[in-house]
């Protein structure tokens, strides 16, 4: 059953989605290459947990490609009150084991651990006043999400499904070793997994996995698309740099803030009612469609989505002329600082958890309000003064996406990664 290359792929995708020891052992017996080993020297690792770009794959145009397999473990401390020194020692030991076991790269493992406002409420002290980390909230009049308020979020990724699964099993105490390194104290000795969410991104993967609720039966997702909606995203020029999203001052200097949404997709009308040009207009801008700027999934765009200041600023005129506005065009209105720098670093990836097409949407920025401003611009409520533009129709991609969950987190610098206090002491 698992002999040929395509059946091996089938197998790997099922394995990450399902997990479990039997999935892993079958996966491992198939692995052709050893997984690259990590390091015993923590000082060789970057202080910024979120600095992944250097060790991920870049396409020919220099755009960063997210890890093909990803895992979000939402975890809770297993007792009331603040964490103890013992808790801290156990967690640091588990993470150090990961660092020793896997090269910090897409072929080994990239990961970060982040903490919620609810976690910091366990302490008597408060977070610094200028740290912009509110509780998650609803960000549109038309959404009613559940809020992720677990203590922490461990986000892991790898090109290698077997590395990711093995790391998870070692962290959760289901196996004793990670890439032959002994896991002395698993993460689950101190943190209980409340929610396990899986995902993937990259050319070929959405097309292979499109047999789920939310995607029409006609199998419309293009083979080359890294995402279900048929286009690539995350062009280098339209992403904040890791430097830009890094906190510069205060106890958490070297860290960043992370918003994570989970968004259900219903793509029947996207693919069935609309043709390619309609999709380009609604994803990028009507001008992109009129001028034929996008071929296929958008590889021809190079390292920029092609949004110019003029395309962004003339959005109301385009709404009048074409009766609709584009998603990227709308969001970009709030996504530049005064010097023209991009403000948020998006790292979204797809999911078929529970057999439903959804998007996990992590975004990094210096403060959660930056994300909230960009999301407000994407809501485009201001544009509905034009009668052709309704809150969810002709308004970018809002007709097809439904926010189910939101959570806010602080990604501390590495030195504070194991149960930070609000003051960073
Ligand atoms: C299924 C959901 C989504 C898909 C498929 C999607 C896809 C895309 C694509 C193809 C682009 C243009 C290329 C690029 O610059 O990356 C883009 C741009 C962008 N999207 Fe999304 N997106 C989704 C949801 C969201 C959400 C929830 C936000 C939250 C605010 C968002 C914010 C942005 C921003 C800020 C840009 C860049 C605009 C700029 O140039 O500044 N997107 N998206």
UniProtKB/TrEMBL annotation:
It comes from the Archaea. InterPro entries: Dimeric_a/b-barrel (IPR011008), DUF7405 (IPR055828), TAT_signal (IPR006311). Pfam families: DUF7405. PROSITE patterns: TAT. SUPFAM superfamilies: Dimeric alpha+beta barrel. This is Tat (Twin-arginine translocation) pathway signal sequence. It comes from Halogranum rubrum.
């Amino acid at each position: 059953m698992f002999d040929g290359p395509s059946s091996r792929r089938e197998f790997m995708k099922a394995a990450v989605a399902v997990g479990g020891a039997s999935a892993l052992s079958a996966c491992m017996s198939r692995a052709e290459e050893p997984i690259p080993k990590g390091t015993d020297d923590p000082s060789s690792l970057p202080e910024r947990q979120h600095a992944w770009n250097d060790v991920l794959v870049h396409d020919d145009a220099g755009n960063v490609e997210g890890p093909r397999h990803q895992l979000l473990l939402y975890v809770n401390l297993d007792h009331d009150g603040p964490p103890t020194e013992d808790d801290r020692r156990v967690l640091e030991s588990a993470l150090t084991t990961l660092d020793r076991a896997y090269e910090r790269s897409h072929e080994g493992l990239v990961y970060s651990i982040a903490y919620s406002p609810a976690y910091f409420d366990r302490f008597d002290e408060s977070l610094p006043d200028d740290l912009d980390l509110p509780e998650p909230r609803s960000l549109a009049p038309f959404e009613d999400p559940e809020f992720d308020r677990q203590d922490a979020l461990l986000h892991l990724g790898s090109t290698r499904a077997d590395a990711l699964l093995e790391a998870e099993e070692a962290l959760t105490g289901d196996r004793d070793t990670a890439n032959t390194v002994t896991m002395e104290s698993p993460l689950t000795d101190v943190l209980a997994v409340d929610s396990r969410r899986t995902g993937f991104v990259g050319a070929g993967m959405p097309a292979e996995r499109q047999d789920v609720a939310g995607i029409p039966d006609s199998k419309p997702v293009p083979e080359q698309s890294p995402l279900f909606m048929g286009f690539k995203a995350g062009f280098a020029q339209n992403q904040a740099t890791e430097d830009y999203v890094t906190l510069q001052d205060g106890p958490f200097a070297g860290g960043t803030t992370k918003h994570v949404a989970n968004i259900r997709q219903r793509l029947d009308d996207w693919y069935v009612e609309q043709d390619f040009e309609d999709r380009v207009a609604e994803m990028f801008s009507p001008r992109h469609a009129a001028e034929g700027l996008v071929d296929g999934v958008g590889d021809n765009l190079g390292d920029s989505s092609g949004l110019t200041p003029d395309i962004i600023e003339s959005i109301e005129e385009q709404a009048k002329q074409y009766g609709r506005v584009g998603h990227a065009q709308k969001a970009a209105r709030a996504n530049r600082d005064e010097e023209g720098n991009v403000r948020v670093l998006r790292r979204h990836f797809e999911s078929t958890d529970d057999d439903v097409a959804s998007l996990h949407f992590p975004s990094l920025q210096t403060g959660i309000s930056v994300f909230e401003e960009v999301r407000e611009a994407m809501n485009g409520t201001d544009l509905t003064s034009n009668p052709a533009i309704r809150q969810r129709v002709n308004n970018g991609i809002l007709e097809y996406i439904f926010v189910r969950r939101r959570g806010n987190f602080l990604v501390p610098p590495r030195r504070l990664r194991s149960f930070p206090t609000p003051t960073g002491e």
